[in-house]
Amino acid sequence: MIEDMEIDQTSTMQMCTFRMANRLFGVNILDVKEVNENTNVTPIYHAPPDVCGYINIRGQILLVVNLRETFGFDQGHKNNAPVGTSKVVVFKSSVDESFGILVDEVCDVIAVEQSRIVDRRASMCNVSQEIKELRRSKDGIVMGVCPLDRELLLVLNARHILAPAEKTVLAV
Hints:
The chain has 172 residues and is an alpha+beta fold. 17% of the residues lie in helices and 37% in strands.
């Protein structure tokens, strides 16, 4: 059901949840190194819009990605600059090179049953292979959707977040 993760479908996954553009997102807590309140991001001039810039956390320089731009959401941040409640979710180096994402607000850690996560790409069976590959290059970030009591949780694959930004930063 979920690509890139070999987890028993009857098991639960602990999700670090956060909000962007009034939507609830989650990533596997095992991929998260920390949530940092330091949002003093140094811009990278001529970088693509989905790259906020660099941040210094205890002497380690990390790339910060703006998923609002990646997903095409309205920019709640002026010129990629964070707002007062923004935080940076930092991922472990086992996910990819250490990097972070700028989020509007960090929420709770919740347990989600694997069987409740719906792979939205499974419904693309009537679409040509070429279109599927084009969508996966950008949409591989979203693993699926999990209905909760009051809203939907968009489950992200942290291992695919940096890929689009990395390609464009290397081209700069």
